[in-house]
Amino acid sequence: MSTVMLDQIAKRLDAIRQSLRWALWAHSLWYSGAIDDDLRARVGRSEAQHAVGRAGAILHQGAILSLTRAWDGKKGTGSLPALATQLRLAAKNASVLQLIAAARGDDGRRRFAVDANRLADRIDQETAGEEVKALARLRHEFLAHARFDAPEAAGRWAEVGDERKLLERTVPLVDELYLLVH
Q: Percent of the chain scored above 70 by pLDDT?
């Protein structure tokens, strides 16, 4: 059971890292074009302006969709909230801790339990944050579903820059998770 649990954690983390790589790639391409005033002025005078504008919008949407996929709270998904649940279970599982102790020693076992709970708490904290909620609302109500009669829900709408802020906090968190698991 312990190796299966650790394998599941590693597979879930791999799926999260894949979503995050796509989000970083799409966001960096979109952002570099969005801030280059000279490029936008040249494209604005060309016949390609609509195609370039649409490509930028698609990249931006792709970044948001990939980032929100990593933060989706559904069970059974390759998401950070689902990983937090697994980390807490692993930190309490005696056979997992024995396996970690065999590989890393008693100090490594203790560190794994403490770090797994600490990182799970960080995931919970971020999941409850403004950017995650606002970007999830944008995804659910307009990107993933064509919702025309969106009721006024509690919370704010996503703003340009929310995805960058969330990416900047997600990358180091996923790096720490990778070091914990591997």
A: 95
